[in-house]
């Protein structure tokens, strides 16, 4: 999942809802390419919400690896 720009606090991917007719599946793990630490994230009816780490891996855009069940 790409995020154009670097999120300050949180990035939301509304298309990755947990359940429903358009559900992408249950998310099992989220990583940020270029970041070695763990990320805090949740998935619900509003989509996938990922907390941005304090340090930025890039100044222009970031890529999240999203693993689903």
Keywords:
mainly beta; elongated; 6 strands; 69 residues; three-stranded antiparallel beta sheet
How would you summarize what this structure contains?
With 69 residues, the protein is mainly β. The protein has strands at 2-4, 10-13, 27-32, 41-44, 47-51, 61-68. A hairpin with a 2-residue loop joins strand 4 (41-44) and strand 5 (47-51).
Give a structural overview.
The protein has 69 residues and is mostly beta strands. Helices cover 0% and strands 43% of the residues. It has strands at 2-4, 10-13, 27-32, 41-44, 47-51, 61-68. The strands form two sheets. It has a three-stranded antiparallel sheet with strand order 1-6-3, with no helix packed on it.
In the sheet with the most strands, the strands line up as 1-6-3
The total count of helices amounts to 0
**Beta strand %:** 35-45%
Unreliable runs: none
Give me the secondary-structure category: mainly beta
What gyration radius follows from the Cα positions, in whole Å? 12 Å
Largest sheet: 3 strands, antiparallel
Distance between the termini: 16 Å
Indicate the mean pLDDT.
88
Shape category: elongated
Could you estimate the helical fraction of the residues in percent? under 10%
Q: SSE order in H/E notation?
A: EEEEEE
Number of strands: 6
